[in-house]
Design brief:
This protein has 5 helices and 11 strands; from the N terminus they run αααβββββαββββββα. It is 18% helix and 39% strand. By secondary structure, the protein is an alpha+beta fold.
Length: 187
Amino acid sequence: KYLGVGAGEFLHKLGISTETAPDAAPDLHEEMSAERPLDEVLRNAPELQMVGFFLGDQEFTVPTIAVQEVIRTMPVSKLPAAPPIVAGVINLRGKVTPLVRLRDLLEVSAPRETEDKFVIVCRRQGLQVGMIIERVHTMYHVKQDDIDWGIEQHLGINVDFVAGLLKLRDQLIGIVSVDRIIASILS
């Protein structure tokens, strides 16, 4: 589990079995590595855990099953042919990690005095990507009933990268689609 993607082949070469007991409960992280779309996994889960964060005055969430870690921003190496949403890359424990300007991707405006101070590092389909954010807010435990997956009519922001809306009290909080962000970077 802690060796990362591709660990099964490495362990097999060492003669270590990677098979689990037949009665073991399925792990959501294992489901993700099977390359099922994250949106599909989320829609089928009865309860979800989300990390809430801010971009300007707007709050968003990302599912914790896609989050590897949250780190402070660090200097980036710029890429000459990268799209404008990619701030550059960092070396995170030996793995090249592209950093996405989430504020630009979601078209969220903010006053000049705010600065992005954290990176949410997500891992999907063997790829690692960092999303630059302003600040982390809280963790949410939500039931499927509190999520609206048909969001096109609710939002005025770029819904290409928002999978759904979390309904909390009198607020609607966007759920960022990590799979769509990675697909955008790769295209």
